[in-house]
Amino acid sequence: MSNQALHLLTFVLYAVLAILFWRAQTAGNAEQQNRGALGFAVIVPLALHGWLLYQTLFIWGALNLGLVYALSLILWLTVLIYWVARYFYPLSSLQTLVLPLAAVSTALPVFFPVGRILGQPASGLFDTHVLMAMLAYSLFTIAALHAALMSLTEKRLHHAKMPKVLQNLPPLLTMETLLFRVVGMGFVLLTITVASGMLFSEKLFGHPLQFTHMTLFGIASWVVFAILLWGHHVYGWRGHTAVRWTLSGFGFLVLAYLGTQFVLEVVLHR
Fold first, then answer.
1. pTM above 0.70, yes or no
2. Is the N or C terminus of the chain more exposed, i.e. has fewer CB atoms within 10 Å?
3. For position 2, what pLDDT does the model report?
4. Which of 115, 142, 163 is the endpoint of a domain?
5. How many CA atoms lie less than 13 Å away from 251 in the CB half-sphere?
């Protein structure tokens, strides 16, 4: 089977599962389904997606991290984290939201196949640095999704009727607990990524540390998340404050790589 056919099959499987999750949400048994056969079935498109990423990310001993491939990797990791965590937390409603995004991410490389092969020589240290950065991106993607849903849910609580997808979300206190756990794990990975980039720049990139847009936005994101965790620990920050800081930090992180790649690949065609 060709790669394009595999991309299409993965897209269809994700899309079908997203529809089934949505129906389970409206029927009120999504959480039971997520911990049962329906949730287990996610492993099929997840495995296909992982295989496609393996084939496209590692080319000629180098990493291909073009914009669409980076997005695809981030969403694959996000679905994987949700798939593993479903046994511990009520996440069915969040799966309903993230599966369509994963479906789109598997189709993008078919329509926008241009990649960006990183010129650095093959290196275990470099590959680990990049993949840990992508895992941090995935965790902060989850945190941003949680923060946005928390904000939306709080606003809709005052309305007589809430959308179906919001009715079956975990309680706000559970969402907030999850938010800070995810932010904490993401912050650890981001700290390692930023520190390794600074300390081992010569070995990783072949040149001394350069304060590019990517570096500055990455450091800005690290500072925002550091302040958020410090404020939560010392002053008990939560609710709207936690949401605003989380979304701000995620915004800087998006600008650090995805925003830069969008300008280079889409605007400047480099």
1. yes
2. N
3. 66
4. 115
5. 9
User: How far apart are the C-alpha atoms of 268 and 260, rounded to whole Å?
Assistant: 11
Q: Same domain for 190 and 248?
A: yes
Helix (H, G, I), strand (E, B) or coil at 27: helix
DSSP secondary structure code for residue 117 in this structure: B
- Clarify whether residues 91 and 170 are in a common domain: no
Cα–Cα distance between 100 and 45 in angstroms, integer?
A: 12
Give 140-169 as a 3 state SS string. Answer: HHHHHHHHHHHHHHHHHCCCCCCCHHHHCC
Give 154-203 pLDDT, tens digit per residue: 776 666 566 666 666 777 888 888 899 999 999 999 998 888 777 656 55
209 φ/ψ angles, rounded to the nearest 5 degrees = -55, 130
Domain holding 10, by residue range, is: 1-115
What pLDDT, on a 0 to 100 scale, did the predictor assign at position 166? 65
Q: How many CA atoms lie within 13 A of 87 on its CB side?
A: 5
Residue 102 structure tokens = 């994963």
User: Ramachandran region of residue 186, left (φ > 0), alpha (ψ -120 to 50) or beta?
Assistant: alpha
Task: Specify whether 144 is located in the same domain as 57.
Answer: no
Query: What pLDDT, in 10s, does the model give residues 106-131?
Result: 988 888 766 554 555 556 666 677 77
Strand stretches in the chain, DSSP E: 58-59, 62-63
- Cα–Cα distance between 51 and 57 in angstroms, integer? 10
| H or E element in which residue 106 lies | helix 92-111
Q: Which helix (H) or strand (E) is 13 found in, with range?
A: helix 3-27
The per-residue pLDDT for range 255-266, each reduced to its tens digit, is 876 655 544 444
Q: What tokens appear for 123 in the block?
A: 């290196």
Whether 130 and 74 have beta carbons less than 8 Å apart is answered as no
- Count of domains forming the chain: 2
The residues that bridge with 64 in the sheet, in sequence order, are 117
Let me know whether 95 and 124 are in one domain: no
